[in-house]
Amino acid sequence: QNEIYFAGLAGVVPTVPVDFASLEARAAAALPPSVLGYLQGGCGDEFTQRQNADAFRHWGMTPRMMVDATRRDLSIDLFGMTLPSPIFMSPVGINGLCTQDGHGDLAAARASALTGVPLIQSTLSNDPIEDVAAAMGDTSGFFQLYTPKDKPLAESLVHRAEAAGYKAIVVTLDTWVTGWRPRDLNVANFPQLRGHVLENYFSDPVFRAMLAKPPREDLPAAVRQWAGTFGKVLTWDDMPWLRSMTKLPIVLKGICHADDARRAIDLGADAIYCSNHGGRQANGGIAAIDMLPAVVASSGTVPVLFDSGIRSGSDVVKALALGATAVGIGRPYTYGLALDGANGAAHVLKCILAEADLLMAVNGYPTLAAVREAGATRMGY
Ligand code: FNR
Question: Which of 133, 222, 268, 290 suits 194 as a labelling partner, its CA being 20 to 30 A distant?
Fold first, then answer.
């Protein structure tokens, strides 16, 4: 991380900006409007999306002095592994839209390999998840499941993820139907319906068996089939089935209520993922960071992953101070992908980590245990 800081001091201007506001402005200027709308947009008038980021301003940290924080340890233990840092790349569907060559998923995986920051790979991948896993190199990845209505298809996706070496299955609960997203709805060529979106499905044997003709020979039928099978409504009764599909750790994404966290753990979830999908699914909700403390309190020793609204290193440290085990970066890395592919996304992750690391130094927090002990205070403004 020092490399970015010292390059800046030496007057080298980075290709991709180091702060979120400049990054977003540059991505907005570079991307076609439909793609920008898809990445940047949220639900309704985007009140909850704005709240997600703004609410971090209401949480503050208190520095400690006379502590030797010359060396910081940002590593975490998760699912029996030691990971070098407490951040990960949140699952983003159709990452292929971010890069000119349509292989944004592979670029994200390469960013993961470059930084050691794990990628949670979305089901909605432009590249087969096996190819994405291979591009991650030695860095561990996790697979995010959008559970199809068709159970054998869901099982096939999970078994492929296991075989490809993903280390956990992240089941997203809040998106069996897509939220009201005006920026997508106002654009005629809604990107999710473009044929090239579906390579991960097209390479799935169970999905192919559902089609009369191979997907390339009848693309509209393949897209219809995909849309028809998307989005099983999951209930607590499905937990035994989810559990039976895999021996990998299961993470439930979208848990925001303390009671839901408790129930998930009682029914065998290995980790809770507190997130409101970056404000893309439901508008009018409480900022995700404001829901985190209650979820942490009811999760005991079970790891809690968090995302929604993280824009900087200080946001990461605040989420860790409030009890998150690991913190997900969503839109920021997609803008990095858009501006400079794998290197751009890696740069964004490194900047966020560099700021978090430096903040821990000046605040006198040498370890993540110290961060958690210090906590964060809800301020009255
Ligand atoms: C997402 N998110 C998401 N989540 C998921 O579980 N599967 C998916 O395929 C996607 N796809 C997706 C696409 C795009 C363009 C975005 C921006 C987000 C949600 C994502 O994992 C995460 O929860 C949010 O991005 C976090 O909010 P911020 O940091 O982007 O504000």
Answer: 133
Calculate the alpha carbon distances from 172 to 14, 35, 243, 274 in Å: 35, 23, 14, 11
CA 164 from chain center: how many Å?
A: 19
Best of 20, 56, 92 for a ligand 1 pocket test (most atoms within 8 Å of beta carbon):
92
Which protein residue's CA is at the shortest distance from atom 25 of ligand 1? Answer: 330
What angle separates helix 33-40 from helix 331-363, to the nearest 10 degrees? 50
ipTM value for the complex: 1.00
Measured by CA distance, the residue closest to atom 9 of ligand 1 is 93
Q: Which atom of ligand 1 is nearest the CA belonging to 278?
A: 27
Strands 377-378 and 59-60: antiparallel
Smallest CA separation from ligand 1 atom 18, residue: 92
Domains in the chain, CATH or no CATH each? 2-364 (3.20.20.70)
